[in-house]
Prior knowledge:
Elements: H1 6-23, H2 25-28, E1 30-38, H3 47-60, E2 68-70, E3 74-78, H4 82-96, E4 105-113, H5 117-121, H6 131-134, E5 136-142, H7 145-166, E6 173-177, E7 180-185, H8 188-201, E8 205-213, E9 216-223, H9 225-248, E10 256-260, E11 264-270, H10 275-283, E12 286-293, H11 299-304, E13 312-316, E14 322-332, E15 336-343, E16 350-356, H12 358-370, E17 376-382, E18 385-390
Antiparallel strand pairs: 1-3, 1-4, 2-3, 5-11, 6-7, 7-9, 8-9, 10-11, 12-14, 12-17, 13-14, 15-16, 17-18
Amino acid sequence: MNRYPLWKNLLIGLVLLWGLIYTLPNFYGEVPAVQVSSAKATLKLEPAAVTDRVGEILKQAGIEHGGIFADATSVRARFASTDLQLRAKDAIERAFNPNAQDPSYVVALNLLSASPAWLTSIHALPMYLGLDLRGGVHFLLQVDMPGALTKRLDATTGDLRTLMRDKSVRHAGITREGNTVVVRFREADQREAARRAIQTATQDLQLADRDDAADDLKLVATLTPQAQKTMRDFAIKQNISTLHNRINELGVAEPVIQQQGTDRIVVQLPGVQDVAKAKDILGRTATLEVRMVDDSPGLLEQAIAGNVPFGTELYNERGGPPLLVKKQVVLTGDRLTDAQPGFDGQTHEPAVHLTLDAAGARIFRDVTRESIGKRMAILLIEKGKGEVVTAPVIRSEIGG
């Protein structure tokens, strides 16, 4: 005989019902789907507009779908069979990417839960299975640590040249030799002055003397073990963060991205069907460039008409009109030592805070001091194609 009060029985019944509802998606399984996401960092996907456009494309092509779903980064349409999925992918690809050599959107094959819309609307989702139960793609990526070390030493070489000039230390040349930076001197007192200046400026270098001749005195600088460890950790952290952002384009639920050893990253993408697209997205590279905008009267109109002036290139600004940008590169991403999201101190809007190395900061300071009132373009170059992310007007010298 049930001796519990009525409210306890009702509570137990509600909990069981609630659990049953959220278990239902596991019984519906998965169906083929096509996913649309942005292929460029400078192109923001508008979910509502893309959803309407995908629906119109499928209607014109006479392809029935089982629903179109959108989130902040992608739009996905599901289908009853793989034949419909492949036909839909071709139709959407042709409409969204008329220029196959320069695609603006990623159109990839995927799998979606077959749950009814009312279950999805209350966030009742199936349990996500790993590669052993669901299949998918397994990547093992290796970070180019020797390349990162070489770039760091090249930047250090430039930093030491700047430091020697600022401290008025005479030297006979600064070069990178393998994994070391060698500073040559003709006088011992100048070498000691350089040693003091370097030790004051940074704690990341180990210094050692090497004398090949009486007038060939050398100061050999190598990165300390702690500095090398910090560099490796930063490289791994940056690559994992980048991979997370790129995998969002594929819409993979619960991907596995983790470090393996000192320089490798394991990526597991359960349920991914389009292996070639996944490999392309994960493996693509982009470079950052800073250039000056050419605002000379009449030149932009001339370039739009097809006659681009010598020494300039025509680019499109993100969400804005075309810009005429000088070919001469002021700075590249190689001079960046860190990039962190944050907020602008004056407008309180979201911003990206960039940290430059010593040589990059000096170049940036000099250029902004000499170009007040002019526009500086920040370009993202990807697959040989460039876009202007932003082109602000320089209001004052930017140093530090």
